[in-house]
Write a structure and sequence with these properties.
Helix content: 55-70%
Keywords: Membrane, Transmembrane, Transmembrane helix
Radius of gyration: 25 Å
Structural class: mainly alpha
Number of strands: 0
Distance between the termini: 58 Å
Order of helices and strands: HHHHHH
Number of domains: 1
Shape: elongated
Length: 196
């Protein structure tokens, strides 16, 4: 009678670890996918909000804030957010009367903000807000001489909502960019230690 064959030993070999370069590529890909999803969700929330029969200050606040935040996911997300400002005119409920003045004025100011914002890193963000504020406050000063019936640009709620939401969105952008710079610098400092 032959001796029983020894049982096969389980494979204890460790799986090969990913190289640092491949880990960096995977991390970059995952971050890109996360940013794309972030931008898509914000645009969907913005579209849904503008479709709802909300008061104009709430629509204005959501339009400005979500557009600037969506721009963090990719430049074209911000421009799509500006275009979505026309959505209330296609909704089932009639748009607020003020939206006829809000759309061109705030839409133009948002486009100027995005162009300046895309020109550089965190140092240009205060200038982006300054350009936006100049458009809003400049309209308040010039509107009486252009059309004395155009009173919305002088409305304090309109000015406060526009400027505050733009500042909040750009503040988030500043925080994100500074955090990214810190993490990249820290990773560069740790890389020689790991290699050694």
């Amino acid at each position: 009678m032959s001796a029983p064959e020894p049982a096969a030993s389980p494979d204890t070999g460790a799986r090969p670890s990913l190289s640092p370069a491949r880990r960096r590529r995977l991390r970059a890909r995952n971050l890109m996918l996360l940013r794309l999803a972030w931008g898509a969700v914000l645009l969907l929330v913005l579209a849904w909000s503008l479709w709802q029969p909300l008061p104009w200050p709430e629509r204005l606040a959501l339009w400005v804030l979500l557009t600037v935040l969506a721009d963090e996911a990719g430049h074209w997300y911000g421009f799509i957010g500006v275009l979505l400002g026309a959505l209330p005119f296609f909704a089932t409920a009639a748009p607020p009367a003020q939206w006829w003045a809000i759309l061109p004025l705030v839409g133009g100011a948002l486009l100027a903000l995005l162009v300046v914002k895309h020109a550089g890193g965190p140092l240009v963000l205060p200038f982006a807000w300054a350009v936006f504020a100049a458009a809003i406050l400049g309209a308040a000063r010039l509107s009486p001489s252009i059309d004395d019936t155009l009173t919305l640009p002088m409305n304090h709620t309109f000015q406060r909502t526009s400027l505050l939401m733009a500042a909040l969105g750009l503040g988030f952008s500043l925080l994100r960019q500074l955090t990214g710079l810190y993490l990249r610098r820290r990773a560069e400092q740790l890389r020689p230690v790991v290699a050694g």
